[in-house]
Each structure stands twice: as C-alpha cells, then as structure tokens.
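Incident log, support desk, overnight shift.

02:14 A customer reports that sequence design results differ from what the structure should imply. Their input is reproduced verbatim below. On-call engineer (initials T.W.) acknowledged and began investigating.
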C-alpha cells in the first residue's frame, strides 16, 4: 500500500463525511434508517458509516491518482495531498464537528458550548451559512410572488445547502490549513 494513501484520502473523505455526518445527526425523517440514536448500536453505526466513507475516499483516491512530486501548482498539491500536519488538523476539526453535532442532537449542555461553537461554525463552515442565509431572501420573494413553498422545495434547498455547502467548506478549510502549514 502506498505511503501517502491516508494523506491523499483526507479531502475526498471530508467531501463525503461532512454532509453524511450532518444528515446522520440532524436529518430527521430524511436519514432513515441511519439516524443517530444515542445507544451503542448508534455509535457503532456512526463508526461503520465513517469507516465506509474512508474506504470509499481511498477508492476515489486510487481512481484519481495524484503525483505530488510532479510539477503541479501549489493549490493542486494542497488539495490532492495536504501536508501531514494539515491533514491531522483537518481530521481534528472533523472530529470536533462530529462531537458538537452529537451534543446538539442530544441537546446536552447547550448553554455552555453553543455560544462558543456557533460563532466558530460561521468561520469553519462559511459556505454552508451563506447558502443557508440565502434561503431567507428566497422565502421572502416566494411570499411576495404568492408562491407557497412546498416540502419538496424545502428538501431540495436543504440538499443544496448540505451537499454543496459542506464540501465547499471542506475545500476552503483544506486550502487555508494547508497554506498556513506550508508557510510554517
């Protein structure tokens, strides 16, 4: 097995893991049968899903090979194979994300951690928040036009926020962290 398999799998893993983990904890009726339940089976299911995502990310990595020794642009290198420290930081941010989304799903100690984590989430997941905030002007326009928003429209927009916003956030995080680590 290649030495850099894990490094080259970081971004594909995050591209898949962020939206799936969010839906796993916050999906409501849309995540069945994999919604999180605070039991041993729920935790085992979460680890099983994340392990599967890691294997799929590894498969994607082998499909789209990246030669980090070649004459590639720095941004392509950062995305294709972030520095080892950057990969560790990115995975650490993801683990924190899982922890806080789990706390939110369980409604534990919200008064303690939400005032700190919510502003931090604006920085870490800016594309998600931008897409989410775009829903308010759209809702006003629909209301002015007399169009009633159906559950299908809500589902489609939520899908756009989750499946475009989180991957964009992962790309932005990877670029910023890799650039900072590279400058070190």
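02:41 Re-run completed on a clean worker. Output:
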């Amino acid at each position: 097995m290649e030495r850099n398999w894990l490094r080259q799998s970081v971004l594909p893993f995050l591209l898949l893991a962020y939206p799936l983990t969010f839906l796993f904890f916050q999906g409501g009726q849309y995540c069945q049968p994999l919604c999180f339940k605070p039991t041993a089976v729920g935790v085992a299911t979460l680890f099983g899903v994340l392990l599967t995502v890691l294997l799929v990310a590894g498969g994607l990595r082998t499909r789209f090979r990246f030669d980090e020794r070649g004459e590639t642009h720095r941004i392509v290198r950062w995305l294709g194979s972030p520095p080892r420290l950057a990969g560790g930081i990115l995975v650490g941010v993801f683990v924190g994300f899982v922890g806080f989304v789990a706390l939110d799903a369980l409604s534990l100690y919200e008064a303690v951690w939400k005032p700190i984590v919510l502003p931090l989430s604006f920085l870490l997941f800016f594309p998600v928040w931008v897409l989410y905030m775009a829903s308010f002007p759209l809702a006003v326009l629909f209301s002015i036009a007399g169009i009633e928003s159906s559950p299908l429209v809500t589902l489609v927009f939520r899908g756009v926020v989750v499946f475009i916003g989180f991957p964009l956030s992962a790309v932005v995080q990877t670029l910023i962290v890799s650039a900072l680590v590279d400058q070190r």
